[in-house]
Amino acid sequence: MKSIDYGHGSIAKAIVQSAGPMMVAQLLSLLYNMIDRMYIAYMPQGTIAIGAVGLCFPILTIMIAFANLYGSGGGPLVAICRGRKEEQEAKRIQAATLGLIMITGLVLMIVTQRWSSPILRLFGATSGNLSYAKQYLDIVLLGTVFSMLATGMNPFLIAQGRPLASMTTIAIGAVLNIVLDPLFIFVWQMGIAGAAIATVISQMISALIVLSLLMSKRAVLKLDFSLVFPSLKWGRIRRITSLGFAGFIMQVTNSIVQSVSNSVLGQLGGDLYISIMTIVSSVRQILDTPISGLVEGASPILSFNYGANQMGRVKKTILWMTGICLGYTVVVWLCVIIWPEVFIDLFNQDPNLIKIARPALMMYFAAFIFQAFQYAGQTVFKSLNMRNQAVFFSLFRKVVLVVPLTLLLPHFMGVMGVFAAEPISNFIGGCACYICMYGTVYRKIKS
Predict the structure, then answer these.
(1) Are 135 and 57 in contact (CB under 8 A)?
(2) Half-sphere exposure of residue 353, counting CA atoms within 13 Å on the CB side?
(3) What is the mean pLDDT of residues 402-421?
(4) Region 210-226 average pLDDT
(5) Could you give the angle at the alpha carbon of 73 between the alpha carbons of 67 and 77, nearest 5°?
(6) Using CA atoms, how far apart are residues 101 and 225, in angstroms rounded to an integer?
(7) CA torsion, ordered 401, 403, 409, 414, to nearest 10 deg
(8) What is the 8-class DSSP label of residue 220?
(9) Residue 247: helix, strand or coil by DSSP?
(10) What is the mean pLDDT of residues 27-41?
(11) CA distance 350 to 307
(12) Apex 294 CA angle, 291 and 300, nearest 5
């Protein structure tokens, strides 16, 4: 697979070549959890079971957040080093990231396995869905290290200009999961446990393929296991984690918001509303994924040209990325507002649930357009190694806005207040992030 030259040629073409495979890869990656939910919804007691899986998802998201802490920090640093022709430091950053992922994955797996029931209760589990949630979580945790490796090491394929290789690794795991899920759940009648087993097997295969590609002779930066522990120096670890901290905060706060929402919904509406939030969140993840893939594909182009001091190309990349993000969010917003049932039917066809989920989904997506500005601004800050701004706007939207609104709005709007917190935070957070990026970065770049 030919590497992309980030430093020459058309910016639009580079974004398409890099972001196209990344968007597909992100969608395929999402299938790990989405396929589970779709099949589980058609099990006996499917409404309760899908809510149980939704309770597990914030916990698993936190674990993946650690993988992204290292991967989304190390990936841009490698791209910047390549732009500066610092190949040896790029290799050490890549090796250090591998070591951090493996150590953290083992610790998280052991700790969460030991206290899975109390953790699930903390995240909103009730007596009605705890047994389903624990059964699913205990099995999926066995694949923690593999899941984190597949997620955390993929950015290094992208940083080397190989987005198609990244997409392929994820595609193989996702297709395998699609095939194995119905076999384990229905044919072999293993239910929710079968969904978890299929996910673990798929994650293992993806991780092994990622590592083999990074260690192959065709790798631009060959992964060297002998450099792993010598590369774990505090200064390098601090650079990786500080740059990846914004993405980490975003994912962790997403989990916190989801657990707070589940807790409030459980008190106000019971297990049915927890299941509705799981469906709404699942739709959001599906529709968020292409835009996430787009900015992840544009990120190494920004980082490489920033490292090479080609500021005109940085500026053009920002313009193209913002325009594509905005066009996508407008189309998605229109589709959700006009045809909400189409998205709900993917996960459940219970008439009573659809009746309640329809207004909830429309409320949740009311200001989805402003996600374009949040993603674009956040990506610029991260890609240009402006870690303080990236971290601030991650915290601002989720911790400063969403959590208080989730707790406050139900006093005035009832249960719908939980769903209203998202569009308000999208509007305020997205505008604030992009205005700051425009004033501090874009206007000061000299072509």
Answers:
(1) no
(2) 25
(3) 90
(4) 88
(5) 140
(6) 13
(7) 150
(8) S
(9) helix
(10) 68
(11) 53
(12) 140
Q: Which residues touch 2 (CB under 8 Å, ≥6 apart)? A: none
Centroid of chain to Cα 210: 18
In a 13 Å sphere around the CA of 42, the CA atoms on its Cβ side amount to 13
Structure tokens at 427: 């509007």
Is the pLDDT reported for residue 375 higher than 60?
yes
Evaluate whether 298 touches 15 at the Cβ level (below 8 Å).
yes
Residues 6+ apart with CB under 8 A from 115: none
More confident residue, 51 or 146: 146
Mean pLDDT of 313-341: 93
The residue that leads in pLDDT, 267 or 38, is 267
CA 188, distance to chain mean position in Å, is: 31
Q: What is the pLDDT of residue 38?
A: 72
More confident residue, 355 or 369: 369
Q: What is the dihedral of CA 270, 126, 283, 166, to 10 degrees?
A: 170
Angle between helices 11-40 and 163-182 (to 10 degrees): 10
| Spatial distance between the Cα atoms of 276 and 290, rounded to a whole number of angstroms | 23
Q: Are 260 and 403 in contact (CB under 8 A)?
A: yes
Q: How confident is the model at residue 26 (pLDDT cuts 50, 70, 90)?
A: low
Whether the Cβ atoms of residue 372 and residue 329 lie closer than 8 Å to each other: yes
| Host H or E run for residue 327 | helix 311-338
DSSP annotation of 9 reads S
Q: Which residues contact 5 (CB under 8 A, 6 or more apart)?
A: 14, 161
| b/e 61-90 (16+ beta carbons within 10 angstroms → b) | bbbbbbbbbbbbbbbbbbbbbbbeebeebb
The pLDDT value recorded for residue 132 is: 86
Rounded Cα–Cα distance for residues 447 and 134 (Å): 55
Q: pLDDT tens across 167-199, in order?
A: 788 888 888 888 898 899 888 888 888 888 998
pLDDT in tens, 150-170: 889 988 887 777 878 877 888
- Dihedral sign for Cα atoms in the order 86, 91, 94, 95: negative
Exposure of 443 by Cβ count < 10 A (0-12 exposed, 13-18 middle, 19+ buried)?
exposed
Q: Is the dihedral of CA 123, 127, 132, 138 positive or negative?
A: positive
% pLDDT > 70, the chain: 95
Give the tokens for residue 34.
């989405």
Residue 265, SS3 per DSSP: helix
User: 346 pLDDT exceeds 80?
Assistant: no
The residues spanned by each domain of the chain are 11-444
Tell me which of 199-208, 268-277, 331-340 is least confident: 268-277
